[in-house]
Amino acid sequence: MSTPRHRTAPEHTHPDDVPVLTALAALADPVRLTLVRELAGSPEWSRACGTFDVPVGKAGLSHHFAVLRAAGLVEQRDEGPRRVNRLRRTEFDARFPGLLELVLRAGS
What are the HTH arsR-type domain coordinates in residue numbering (predicted)? Predict the structure, then answer.
């Protein structure tokens, strides 16, 4: 009989603690940019990690979400077996006014 696995809660960096170069580097990657854009078009806490249309496996996706959390862009929480996400738009915009809007607009 196997023992149940428990995930540790993800660590989050508040945007106030993020240098601008960290934020820019996180947004420069095409996969992370896709994740941010898809989150921007979704209601908060409605997107589980496995629902994004990106060309990476589970480990790669985990890495990209870790980078986004470290840059203060994404917050995650566990809901049962699912890890759901939200874009920290308000907090990020307070730290870097207009940056997220510019990045999101550049893709349209």
Answer: 12-107
Q: Beta strands of the chain (E only): which ranges?
A: 47-48, 74-79, 82-87
pTM: 0.90
Tokens standing for 23?
């934020």
The alpha carbon of residue 81 and the mean position of all alpha carbons in its chain are separated, in whole angstroms, by: 18
- Alpha carbon distance 26, 18 (integer Å): 11
pLDDT digit string, tens, across residues 14-45 = 999 999 999 999 999 999 999 999 999 999 99
| Ordered structural domains, the chain, with CATH | 17-106 (1.10.10.10)
**Phi-psi label, residue 85: left if phi above 0, alpha if psi -120 to 50, beta otherwise:** beta
User: Rounded to 5 degrees, what are φ and ψ at 36?
Assistant: -65, -45
